[in-house]
Structures are given as C-alpha cells and as structure tokens.
C-alpha cells in the first residue's frame, strides 16, 4: 500500500518540478528539495500518522542536518499546511474537471470516492481526525469552498422537485407526518442564516441541505470504508456507497449523471 500512500506526494512533486522548470537554478533546487521533503512526509504519514510527522526524521532520511531543512519549511506546521493544500488542490481540480464536462451529483460522488480510494492517507489528512496542535490557514478554507461550489451547482441543477426531495431522499420521511417534516423545516430556517460554508453562493436552503446531505452521508460511508470498519462484514462497500447515492438522488437520479 506504500505506493498508493505516496501518491499525494508524487502529484505535488510533479507540480513543483513543473513550476521550477522555468525558474532560476536556485529556485529549481529549492523546489526539488521541498518536493522531496513532501514525498518523505507522505511516507511518514502512511507509517505513523500525521501527528508523528517530524522534519528532523525526514532530514535523517535525506542525509542532511535538521536545521538544513528549516530553510525550506519553517517547521512541522508549514509542512502539514503544504500537504493539506496539495491534497485539497488535487481533489478540487478533480471535481472541477468533472464539473466542467457537465457531471451531475452522481458522477461527482464517484470522483470523490475514486480520489479517496487512490490514497486513503491523503483523504484522512483533510477529512480525518485533526492533527493535535495544528490550525490550518484561511486559504485552505478557500480551496475547500471551491469543491463545495461545484457540489452546490450540481445540486441546484437538480431543480426544485429534485431527487432527494422524495423517494428515499433527504426528505423521504417528510410526507409521513409532521413529526418528521418539522425538524427538516427547522433546519432549513437555521441554515438560511448559517451559510458561511457555502462561500457566499446564492442557493436556497433546500439546495444547501441537499448538498450537506450528500457531503455528510457519502463521507460517512467513505470514512468507515477507508478506516477498515467494513472488513469482515461480508458486503461490498461500493454497493453501499451506490445505495446511499440512490437514497439521496431517488429513481430520477439513477441514470449516470
């Protein structure tokens, strides 16, 4: 699994190398060292988790002194930030590329799952347990909002009577009685005034709720699958993921959108 675990670092290294190709020799060397540090960092994360990340340990693996690497990264937190930024950028680019071809919610869901399965440690770095003592800078939030913007656009394209508004979707129980419908209405009213996560996009509460349902339910399945919690349970997680999509989208959303 080590090859897959290092994929996030490999992608970032390729980008750093491309950026450096048009720079001065000194800048190219700096970009190459930073890319190598990040590759070692991804391997450390795969072996011991992000909380155990150590620039000194990476320096030892690279055959240089610890202080030498601090010329390239100010400390552990800056390195973690770069890894998180690379991971979010990779996912945002994958989602944006699919959205640009007209992908609907279902296809975006498969982009998310494919990206997560390709490198679980990269997935958990941005969607797993926070690293103790680390706080991401605001620009990271901006990249994550790019992903949400594409999701919201896909959810809005489903229309007012969209899948997710019945037939096993977000409000599938709403028609069964007021006791089920009231909490949904209460959340709609609440989310209308708590929408900073949507990045200022003008979307009605129903679309916001649909996007949140997609985001939370699918990440729930993915997180459990990647953490190995389905091992030994005897079913195919891919089919469970598809069933969750059917529940969110309903019969109308089942053609490959």
Care to describe what's here?
Helix 7 crosses helix 8 (120-127) and helix 9 (138-156) packs across helix 11 (205-226). The chain has helices at residues 2-5, 7-20, 25-48, 55-62, 66-69, 76-100, 105-118, 120-127, 138-156, 178-192, 205-226, 237-249. It is mainly alpha-helical and 257 residues long. It contains twelve helices and no strands. Helices cover 66% and strands 0% of the residues. The longest helix has 25 residues, at 76-100.
Which key phrases capture this entry?
12 helices, disordered N terminus, mainly alpha, 257 residues, globular
Task: Set down the secondary structure blueprint.
Elements: H1 2-5, H2 7-20, H3 25-48, H4 55-62, H5 66-69, H6 76-100, H7 105-118, H8 120-127, H9 138-156, H10 178-192, H11 205-226, H12 237-249
Major sheet description: none
Helix/strand class: mainly alpha
Secondary-structure element series: HHHHHHHHHHHH
Which overall shape is indicated by the principal axes computed on the Cα atoms? Answer: globular
Number of helical runs? 12
Quote the beta fraction: under 5%
- Rounded mean pLDDT is 82
How much is the radius of gyration in Å?
A: 21 Å
Distance between the termini: 32 Å
Parts with pLDDT < 50 across at least 5 consecutive residues: 1-6, 163-181
The helix content is: 55-70%
Task: Please provide a brief summary of the model.
It is built from twelve helices and no strands.
């Amino acid at each position: 699994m080590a090859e897959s675990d290092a994929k996030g670092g490999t992608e970032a290294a390729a980008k750093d190398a491309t950026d450096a190709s048009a720079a001065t020799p000194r800048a190219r060397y700096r970009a190459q060292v930073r890319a190598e540090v990040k590759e070692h960092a991804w391997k450390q994360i795969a072996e011991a988790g992000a909380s155990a990340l150590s620039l000194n340990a990476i320096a030892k693996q690279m055959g240089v002194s610890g202080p030498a690497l601090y010329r390239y990264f100010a400390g552990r937190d800056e390195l973690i930030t770069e890894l998180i930024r690379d991971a979010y950028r990779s996912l945002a680019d994958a989602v944006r590329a699919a959205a640009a071809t007209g992908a609907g919610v279902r296809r975006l869901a498969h982009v998310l799952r494919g990206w997560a399965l390709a490198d679980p440690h990269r997935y958990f770095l941005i969607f797993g347990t926070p690293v103790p003592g680390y706080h991401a800078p605001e620009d990271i939030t901006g990249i994550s909002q790019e992903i949400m913007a594409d999701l919201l656009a896909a959810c809005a394209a489903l229309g007012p009577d969209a899948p997710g508004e019945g037939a096993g979707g977000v409000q599938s129980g709403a028609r069964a009685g007021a006791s089920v419908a009231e909490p949904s209405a209460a959340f709609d009213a609440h989310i209308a005034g708590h929408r900073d996560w949507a990045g200022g996009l003008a979307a009605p509460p129903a679309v916001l709720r649909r996007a949140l349902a997609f985001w939370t339910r699918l990440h729930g399945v993915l997180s459990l699958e990647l953490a190995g919690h389905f091992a030994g349970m005897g079913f195919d997680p891919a089919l469970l993921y598809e069933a969750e999509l059917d529940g969110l989208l309903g019969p109308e959303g089942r053609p490959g959108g």
